[in-house]
Amino acid sequence: MAKENSNKGYLSGKEIRAIAKSNAKEMKRLEAYKNRRCPESEFLSQMADDDNILEIQDLHTFFFTEQGVVKAVNGVSYDVPKNSVVGVVGESGCGKSVTSMSVMRLIQGPTGQIVDGSIRFKSNEYVLDGKGQPIPDGDGGYRMEEKVYDIAKMPMREIHRIRGKQVAMIFQEPMTSLNPVFTIGQQLDEVTLLHMPGATKQIAKEKSEDMLRLVGIIPENVYNAFPHELSGGMRQRVMIAMALAAEPRLIIADEPTTALDVTIQAQILDLLQDIKNKIDGSILLITHDLGVIAEMADYVVVMYAGKVIEKGTVLEIFQDPRHPYTIGLQKSKPTMTLDDDTELYNIPGNVPNPIDMPSHCYFKERCSMCTKKCSGEYPGMVQVSPTHFVACHLYDEETAHG
Amino acid sequence: MADVKKVNDQGAPVVGYDDAAIEAEFRAKRQAQIAQDCSLPFDPEAVLEVRHLRKCFPMEKTLTGKVTKELVAVDDISFKLYPGETLGIVGESGCGKTTAGRAILKLHQPSGGQIIFDGQDITHFNSKQMRQIRKKMQIIFQDPYSSLPPRDTVGGILSEPVEVHKIVPKDQVKNYVLELMDKCGLRDYYFERYPHEFSGGQRQRICIARALSVSPKLVICDEPVSALDVSIQAQIINLLKKLQREMDLAYVFISHDLSVVKFISDKIGVMYLGSMVEFGTKEDIFREPLHPYTKALFSAVPNPDPTVKMDRIKLEGDIPSPADPPKGCRFHTRCPYAQEVCKHVPPENREVTAGHFVACHLV
């Protein structure tokens, strides 16, 4: 596919048709798999480690475009432990958002498809009787049970069991992710009405007002307001309230503060910290800002060109970064405490073209510590401490000895 | 201004402030100050001198076209910039930093004050006169995706200003452009290519090359790295610094990212709701920020060191609407140290130490 012309970056009509044909076949197969009917047993799974709430293993999410297959997520694995904040950091186009969208199954089909891998999520849901009604437990609540789902294998018609209720998402653009024609109150109430058994409008309103108070908004002023009447920071608070309304176990925050000013960002980060302590759940925080990660996260995952290149605890990543990219990323960010202002360290070059990925390490062309080995196959994950993993040939020795 | 407190019938002062009287006095004082400053001789060394720049946008008009309500986007900012220097302007969105940059270039006609560029008062120049000045002042925009013409090649984009302003003879244009591209880190075979073939960082290099193609003295950089990734950001910042050294450029660097501004600037102005609340050299401002807003802004930047837990100065609420700014000090609604006087009396811009200006009652 596109071999002879790939150097020039142009495709002939023949090549485009060949790509379209192979894409159409693959997309049709995956769409059918997504829309199939199947018994629950087919997508039930087991966690590898019981302390985790989410385990992503060898996930591949591809986009079948007219220029070729874009391997946006190409074999990503990481875990989100219970009651923790996992920060995912990387440049634009590295697949950090696509990974989180895959968890929510929000990848836009038919071009975007989860091709391979598993996303195991431990959900905590109501036990249903034969009519699909929850069974009261006698204490005013309902009986709950834990189930492990493999989200990647779930058909789309079953996804409502998880989306919104068990996993909630906070988007980057608070301006565009609220519906402009409904009031804040209506949009918040909807969450409760959908996900809480036996909820009435009155209960939903009380719950919404509680949630608004939790995120530091006086409900009287905002409940009946439309999104355009609020500022960016307020809208992001409403988004957080909405994510919390169904009491999810996992909140995915996709660049929650990127569109906001620093002073408002500080407010929102404080709020997320505060909420993390109040709810019994984990946060998956996706951002390109190393400062935000350092402040919020317990564990850090560094992604580059669709792969995880380093993961570990926040102290390991910031005090003992191993991968040349992680080291370069930290050095190239000007900081408030930096006194030397002659020249910034910079990583030369650009991210490789996502359609024609090389077979060797993707970072080789930009790397300053290249060795002979780097022209060989893609490096595997090397464990340098019980929690610290890095994908780089420089550390191959360490496993050999350890 | 404590003497303009309310008085009762006997002429004895009562508790409280007479807002109307305070405003009248403040205006009169400022008018006098502006008249005095604007009649001073120009500084021959400075490449750009801005005196009491003001830009208002009409919000409501009567049927006859008389403006009844105005939005003051930029209110009374002044500074001097010498060749080879960088002025960083920081502030939150909506504080008027971009409007200030555009007003300096006269892309917006200023509503008041003076802009002295290269020894000439250009405030009231018409478009014909401006054309001669334009080649000495250039701008780099934030978004490299929308600021390049999609139907022209890189060579065309870069040659056009050179030809229009007759920088070099016609037969040397191509060589000149290739040299310029080399300087900005663009390969020579990019000459034939179109903007859509490039990544954000490369496009920003094209924008920089275009701005520098007419060998300007002043470049306004309006958030040039905000749309770029961290590793590309560093490349562009280093390029801007290198070109400044080589061509003795003066930059006005507008950004909301304090760490970038700290890295590149010599002088820094902090803006809040249209006015400059603090101005000084980088050393002054970062070693000893005096205005509470500057302090809060600095402490809000997340620190990329997980072992350091910062004690933040928290600002409550959002930036107020510039259409209806608060009375007195504009920052008093969010200031953690606000006192009664701040709510009524607008603070004056005072020089605390040489070259370090602060507009705050409490300093």
Description:
- The complex is a heterodimer of chains A (402) and B (363).
- Chain A is an alpha/beta fold and 402 residues long.
- Helices cover 30% and strands 22% of the residues of chain A.
- Chain A has eleven helices and twelve strands.
- Chain A has an eight-stranded mixed beta sheet with strand order 6-7-8-3-9-10-12-11, with helices on both faces. In chain A, strands 2-1-4-5 form a four-stranded antiparallel beta sheet.
- Chain B is an alpha/beta fold and 363 residues long.
- Chain B has a domain of 40 residues.
- In chain B, the strands form three sheets. Chain B has an eight-stranded mixed beta sheet, sandwiched between helices.
- The mean pLDDT of chain B is 88.
- Chains A and B meet through α6, α7, α8, α9 and α10 of A and α7, α8 and α10 of B.
Looking at how many chains there are and whether they match, the oligomeric state comes to heterodimer
Strand content of chain A: 15-25%
Fraction of residues in H or I helices of chain B: 25-40%
How much helix is in the residues of chain A?
Answer: 25-40%
Distance between the termini of chain B: 16 Å
Count of DSSP-assigned helices of chain A: 11
Widest β-sheet, arrangement of strands of chain B: 8-9-10-5-11-12-14-13
H/E series of chain A, N to C?
HEEEHEEEHHHHEHEHEEHHEEH
Radius of gyration of chain B: 23 Å
What is the CA-CA span between the terminal residues of chain A?
42 Å
Poorly predicted segments of chain B: none
| Overall shape of chain B | globular
Strand content of chain B: 15-25%
Major sheet: arrangement of strands of chain A: 6-7-8-3-9-10-12-11
- Rg from Cα of chain A: 23 Å
